[in-house]
Specification:
Helices cover 69% and strands 0% of the residues. It is an all-alpha fold and 121 residues long. It has one domain (10-117). Helix 2 runs antiparallel to helix 3 and helix 4 (66-87) runs antiparallel to helix 5 (92-100). The protein is globular and about 45 Å long. The mean pLDDT is 93.
Length: 121
């Protein structure tokens, strides 16, 4: 689990919805949401998906590249594992579903890059 320094203002910025700048910040932002705001009692699936997707979309930006897609994938998986380890909440399926919602866009990106750069030989 990445840790964001407590004294440089980034924790507060991330908690206030500022876009994560890297995978570590995205992981922190998602974990913080689950730890302090996630509830099983108020439409948990919809609320979880909406909030985690909000964080991911802001992180990816308008023109995500391979590194952003890869960082997003890793942050979702690692955050799901850390949520289970530290909070005893098994939300891995939900984290994976968020990730899978981007599969079509990732595939389109990959196809564009194959067309412009050539396929693996």
């Amino acid at each position: 689990m990445p840790y964001i320094k407590a004294n440089d203002g980034r924790r507060e910025a991330l908690r206030n919805g500022e876009p994560a700048l890297n995978a570590g910040e995205l992981n922190y932002q998602m974990f913080h949401y689950v730890k302090y705001n996630y509830s099983f009692t108020v439409d948990p699936y919809y609320k979880f998906m909406k909030n985690i997707t909000f964080f991911v979309d802001r992180f990816l930006g308008d023109k995500p590249n391979y590194q952003r897609w890869n960082d997003m994938t890793g942050a979702l998986i690692r955050c799901g594992k850390e949520v289970f380890r530290r909070l005893d909440l098994d939300l891995m399926g939900e984290f994976i579903r968020v990730m899978e919602n981007y599969d079509k866009r990732i595939a389109e990106y990959e196809d564009e890059k194959i067309a412009s750069n050539g396929d693996v030989e």
